[in-house]
Write a sequence for this structure.
């Protein structure tokens, strides 16, 4: 097996991705035999009332077919000839003094996995020429990501502005060797940042200081971008799934939930760890943590090609119920609690989601209108293919806003011991999240951040 470094030393496989997209379109549309795929990269956008550009984030469909993270670019792919052409901004002498020389076509051809590189000033004539020569072919683009002047150049009966998005989103589910290596690299960097936070948690007094520790390690190790806004939630803040403040004092709070991960060249990691701020879990926190860790381990044991994600999610709830019964928080028959969906009060979200260029990656087919509360927020439905990367992130939370209505509902209250529950509010929430590559016969855990209690406590004490 190749090392991560050796895989990433090669070119991003843009042509293979383009060929996969073309094949998908040909399977689903008879008109795709000799069409043209067209994509626009993200444009440079200025901050309002300012002469600085907004932070740049490349459009994921464009990157998937180019590997190019530059602004103001375009690409075409001729389905019949398999020719992939990248259009990049031309040299503008007025900007060189400020920004330096841009990437030249010759250098871009060496850097990216494309057949031809042209200046973007050639794009209009290129598209007009193609339209005149291939009158019976379909022009494939994403309607919300295409300029009006480009749309106007093509016969309205011979363009499809909806199907390409679906094709790209479906093909992105199964990752190739390069994509897996990119997610693995993002995980390796993120794991080092997580360990740095463990080493520093007893030295600081505010959530924002720990966010700074995490960001410093990511940037120092080559990841300037974060996969998402970090969640640095101390105490009861951890009961808020996507807590954003990250500036409260740690004080005498018990635990810290850190959901944070880097992005490596447009590919994301997504990691959550929960640990004791003082270095040792107290009885209540340790009990809940052990339940969540067991939830994750039993779910991981189920993973392999074609496992049904709903079944894995249900097993997480079953283990949660078993654990909360053992702690005395729940009472009654396990089967009744499960069928009544009372465990949703403590584990309200889905078990995980696809991961790739986006943290919540494409192709999961969620059903947010599902009337069953256990599955409403499950971001992936159906069987998992080999080559997909999915997060496994069970959690148990003590959120008053969610749980108190259950306590007022006799259908649920009969299964909850409120006196025992009162001892657990300050646990806040516990979530453990790893990034998992699905294989034919099992899985490969791409996440190396510590999660065993003894290892985390040892690192905290050594800091």
């Amino acid at each position: 097996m190749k090392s991560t470094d050796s895989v990433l030393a090669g070119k991003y496989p843009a042509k293979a991705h383009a060929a996969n997209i073309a094949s998908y379109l040909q399977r689903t549309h008879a008109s795709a035999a000799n069409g043209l795929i067209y994509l626009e990269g993200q444009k440079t956008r200025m901050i309002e009332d300012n002469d600085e550009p907004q932070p740049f984030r490349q459009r994921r469909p464009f990157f998937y077919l180019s590997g190019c993270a530059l602004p103001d670019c375009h690409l075409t792919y001729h389905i019949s000839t398999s020719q992939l052409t990248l259009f990049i901004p031309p040299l503008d002498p007025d900007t060189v003094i400020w920004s330096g020389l841009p990437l030249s076509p010759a250098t871009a051809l060496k850097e990216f996995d494309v057949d031809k590189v042209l200046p973007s000033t050639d794009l209009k004539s290129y598209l007009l020429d193609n339209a005149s020569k291939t009158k019976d072919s379909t022009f494939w683009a994403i309607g919300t990501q295409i300029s009006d002047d480009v749309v106007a150049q093509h016969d309205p009966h011979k363009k499809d502005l909806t199907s390409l998005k679906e094709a790209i989103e479906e093909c992105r589910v199964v990752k190739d060797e390069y994509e897996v290596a990119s997610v693995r690299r993002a995980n390796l960097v993120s794991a080092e940042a997580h360990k740095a936070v463990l080493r520093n948690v007893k030295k600081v007094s505010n959530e924002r200081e720990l966010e700074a520790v995490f960001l410093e390690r990511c940037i120092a190790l080559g990841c300037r971008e974060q996969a998402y806004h970090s969640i640095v939630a101390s105490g009861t803040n951890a009961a808020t799934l996507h807590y954003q403040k990250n500036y409260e004092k740690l004080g005498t709070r018990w635990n810290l939930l850190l959901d944070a991960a880097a992005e490596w060249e447009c590919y994301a990691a997504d990691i959550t760890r929960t640990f004791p701020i003082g270095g040792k879990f107290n009885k209540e926190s340790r009990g809940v943590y052990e339940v969540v860790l067991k939830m994750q381990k039993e779910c991981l044991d189920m993973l392999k090609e074609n496992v049904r994600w709903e079944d894995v999610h249900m097993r997480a709830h079953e283990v949660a119920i078993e654990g909360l019964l053992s702690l005395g928080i729940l009472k009654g028959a396990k089967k009744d609690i499960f069928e009544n969906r009372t465990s949703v009060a403590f584990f309200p979200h889905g078990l995980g989601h696809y991961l790739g260029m986006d943290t919540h990656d494409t192709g999961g087919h969620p059903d947010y209108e599902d009337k069953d509360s256990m599955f409403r927020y499950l971001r992936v439905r159906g069987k998992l293919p080999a080559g997909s990367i999915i997060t496994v992130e069970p959690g148990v939370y003590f959120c008053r806003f969610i749980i108190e209505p259950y306590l007022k509902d006799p259908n649920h209250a009969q299964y909850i011991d409120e006196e025992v529950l009162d001892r657990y509010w300050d646990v806040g929430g516990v979530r453990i999240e790893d990034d998992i590559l699905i294989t034919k016969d099992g899985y490969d855990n791409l996440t190396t951040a510590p999660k065993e209690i003894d290892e985390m406590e040892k690192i905290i004490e050594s800091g």
User: Anything to note?
Assistant: Residues 177-200 form the longest helix (24 residues). The mean pLDDT is 96. The radius of gyration is 25 Å. Residues 43 and 72 are 5 Å apart (CA to CA).
